[in-house]
Request: fold
Amino acid sequence: MRNIPTLNDVHQQFAEYFDIPALKPYAYLLSKKGSEGHICLHLDKIKEEQENLPESYQKIDTSNSILETIPVVGTQGNDKQPFVIYQNRLYLQRYFRYETEFLQRIKQFLVTEQAVLPERMALLQSQQPLISKLFGATTTTNDDNDPADWQLAAAITGVLNNFTIITGGPGTGKTTTVAKILAILFATDPALKVALAAPTGKAAARMAESLRNTTIEVDAATTEKFRLLQPATIHRLLKPINGSPYFRHNKDNPLNYDVVIVDECSMIDVALFAKLMIAIHPNTRLILLGDKDQLASVEAGSLFGDLCQAQEKLNLFTAARRQFINSFIGDEYRHIPASQNADSRHPLFQHLVELRRSHRFTGNTGIGKFSKAVIANNVPVIHSFFPPSADEQVVIDPTASVKLFEDFIAGYETFITEKDIPTALKLLNNQRVLTAVREGPQGLYAVNKQIEKFLHDKRLIQANTEFYQNRPVILTRNYYEHGLFNGDTGIIRADENGVLMAWFEDSTGALKAVLPGYLTQAETAFAMTIHKSQGSEFGEVLVLLPDTTDVPILTRELLYTAVSRAKQKVYVQGTPEVILMAAERFVERASGIASRFREVDAHAN
Reply:
């Protein structure tokens, strides 16, 4: 048995497992890229990666042709070797398989929907009065640079297709659009079986809550169907097999639903996405929702973003499809313009709609303007928010003022002093401190300790035990036995017998109490990481940025996600240099999605 040296560098440890000198630099870089969220290694960029190699690997030949001579590297994509070369990208076999299964299932959706498109178009025409009612008068605003009714376009697309992607920023009405799609589908088939899912229990519950509380005009029967919808995490929907990475629902045992709707798709990694896709029958309607500009998954892959960027331009339709959509839009001002006409063979053509009008923010002021500037790295607009400029919704504090910090966290008193637990849980979500990192002075752990000390000194809490009265907690794993999930937040409160319990709201809004000792993986949640905040909304947010630009995790996607968690006001404690660096740096994860779609397009031609 070969002796493998013990190394501090985990990527080199992986590379040394293969006693093939020519493979080692590639194995090293592929492992490193995987840890950074990439699915594969671009071989045409290998020279740029040389400096990231250990010194002992830098003299090894990295001319790509040598890979094809190595026995453990497959070239056809259907081999059993641990590595695969495809389209000048190097993959680990399992990631290549995930990406392939993901793409193949999309193609199957596209094939199966073709046979039913005429029938579905007739179905939509029969529902013209309902559609007119659902998409009646829509107010336009002075900042309407794009007045087209993209919500209606997305709804028509979702009813026609078996595979639909709806993307949009905060407040653009993704869930409202889904409610309208379901209202149309329930009107044609009252027995429709619908599944709602998201990567976290909180995001799934929030989608179900939004559907139950929708303000769209629907009949009592549809309202009741919305009320009965049961949200689930993707894991719970697929039913995990204990002690196994596999699920009970898979290609051979697909989910028994007519419609599957998945929210917060930007958070789904490649492995889970592939397993979800193959568990959905191609005859099922699948609707994926998310914000393409938000953070990608913590694990490898950014498939939702890859799908949204696979075409050069979004919201394109054939002239015939555009006219069909416009036949449902009474106000000509809201029609899809002729500039959106196209004739494309791209597989995702007419399957992806971006909602462009925020009903929460305008694009000309405040949070909407700042978040758009961050994601576009619009330096002059970002500069316009720096002091001494003032904005009612966005406050930039480059001095990290202790007074601002303490004034903000003093607001936690409202939930602490509220006796009614359901009301206290709602008040907790009125504000949140968000951190970019976990360690360091501006990190999660230090900030939570600061807040606890401040509130302790104010005699609002007694933070002298692990689970103390009024401690807010966030779960960091799923607790299926209690119906609680990773990302759920609650508070510690004594019950009527004086026993400290962890209180949460379930997916229906009902209270759920669990003994804290059962929740072994929970963190204090006065402050939470920006990553953990995805899928959540708060009235006001305080964002704490590191005091140095040398933090790779600090990107425009991270800052955009943090800022857009706030509904009314956001405070950003960070220097102009750090904010500008974050807006300049963006997440770019290697995958083969876009090029493999182009390959399908080329074959179609």
In short: The longest helix spans residues 93-114.
